[in-house]
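Most newcomers find our protein records easier to grasp once they have seen one. Sequence and backbone structure share a record, each on its own labelled line. Nothing more is needed to start thinking about how sequence determines fold. As an example, a complete record with its sequence and its structure tokens follows.
=====
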Amino acid sequence: MSDQLSRRLALLGDAANLSLLTQCLHGIERECLRVDERGKLALTPHPRALGSALTNPQITTDYSESLLEFITPTSTSVEKTLDELGEIHRFASGKLDGEYLWSPSMPCELPDEETIPIARYGSSHIGRLKYVYRKGLALRYGKTMQCIAGIHYNFSLPEGIWELLREDEGSEKSARDFQSHRYIAMIRNFRRYSWLLMYLFGASPALDAGFLRGRPHGLESFDAHTLYLPYATSLRMSDLGYQNNAQAGLTPCYNDLDSYIDSLRRAVSTPYAPYEKVGTKVDGEWVQLNTNILQIENEYYSSIRPKRVTYTGERPIQALMARGVQYVEARCLDINPFLPLGIDVTEARFLDAFLLYCALSDSPPLGGCECGSATSNFLKVVKEGRRPGLKLERGGQQIEMKDWAGALLDAIAPIIDLLDRANGSSLHAQSLAEQRAKVTDADLTPSAKVLAEMRERGESFEAFALRYSRQHAETLHSEPLSAEEQARFEGMASQSLAEQADLEKQPEGDFDTFVAAYQASILGLISV
């Protein structure tokens, strides 16, 4: 442990400061496909009983009309966050008429590309803009890739911790700039160490054979309907996932916020020749918002993002520029198909400790070589993380993944101790013990358990996933919401429908002009 990390931990462990660790904020976004009773993609519209996908703050859609997204409010308690996620699941599951929430990250057997429905958000200009953006995603990446689901874990440290560290270090940066600086440093460490999360929590070692649409691949056949890699942890996060030539040269620098913002704002304003050939309209119909490398900032696919809550009409880059980084969004987590919510409190507790370690540890700038090794290490673990003797690169040297994983868990242990002291429990220590057991025995990892159960039962990926989708539905239905909670969700759904209707009644002018103004909002930020 470095002297600086020891000092920071001692500072936070002081009786006057320890309670700050109970003030970290959490939020979870869980995506999941709707499927019919046979486990095929549901082609029905977004259920009206769930409210408006445009305006409901907790239940929306992601890419497809069939791809639900559940969003919890933020809370200082991971237990409360998981309870709220469970309530959203129980309400939504109760409104699905003969349909199920698909249990894993990788999709069910999909129909042809044309048949996969793009999410609709109504006739308002903002609703149409969201739809056209998704048409652009289909054009650029294909609809199949957009049906992959995951869990996004939002996390922030209380401003009191940042101010405590700023004062202790005698930083001359403003409070806002110091906080942004340290969040960017946290993201660098996440890039260095997030392969560990893929080993511990990766849960997508197999997929439906039709997913690749006949494209060449290096996967093996598990059975006639399933492809897999024997030591994979997360094919979702491998190079089978979101890949695009336009983004290949886009490597935002996480060495400071300004360079990160600059790389993204240039990407959303720099034309890309293949997209220019298509244009924004075909036969008078919008097919993409623009012909740039990225249509909007959120199109950039990354395992973690610096975030700031936006005001109405404000773009993410504008919010970061104006007010700095407020929290991070970890985006690399697979849905655990064995769990009704796709994640549990044990995983969340470890994520808190891991993210705090990334925030408090030394984090020198990432040089070109280290950037490359971080990417390489991550891809090795998602494809062959359970391979005996697997080696990664650390500091230019080869090291066995299990040795490095054990060392990282040892380094995280003091933070685990602080969290348990702050919360008056031993629950974080129990979570750490579970992760240590997985490092010792790879068969305890979710990815290994998926393959073991499929083999034991002679199941294809689809049969395995559908069985758990049905099982989770039974679990959710057996624990109905209280009358008060049911009424709250019903009211939220009704209010969201009214809000969308109000939006659509307002005169808005020409849609082309609206899109042009939206594009201009970022062009004005580009330095000439």
